[in-house]
Amino acid sequence: MTYLEAINKVLRRLREDEVASPDTSAYSKLIGELVNDANRVVEDAWDWGELRGIRPLTLFATSSYGTISSLNENFKILGVYNPTDKSELKRGTEADYYNSIYLEDTQDGTPTNYIFKGYSDVNNTTAAFNFYPPTDATRTILFDIVDRSPELTIGSSDIRTSGLSVVQLAHAMAVEERGETGGTPAAQLYATARSTLSDAIAYDAARYPTETVWCSV
Prior knowledge:
alpha+beta
């Protein structure tokens, strides 16, 4: 489902005319904002398979710093891997990193830990990481990442998760904002949207069964 299709589905539910683009009218722009709000809620509700992907980071010899560009600031790291040495990197702490770099006589070698160091650009789209110990050779580090979508602005942009959940939630928001429902109260529309979202999460979670199993440690 595209961004424009979602807007028009909401407009039809509101008994409004469909539009040719998201910015056709002031009202279509408002519905577009609500679709974006709903899309954020839906994407943040679960680590959807459609949002998962492997992102490479090049770590140059003797360096302990690297970046990954074109990320949404709500990204989540599921795992970090070093395919060269067949190992998984662990999330470290700033204290351990600074001890390793400044206090200990740490030799360059195979990185075993990483820490997130914020963003290296003003738009918060390039994530920065430090690694320790510093690498003794150029390595490609692979990040398994859940990367949420940026704000949708172009009509042809895809809604990457549960389109029906996004439409139903945006419709409930629009009805609440407008103050009239055509017979269906906003609370009932929200309940329907939550039920649809719950079902969609259950279907997607079934593809990753080990991620919903709680183990004592």
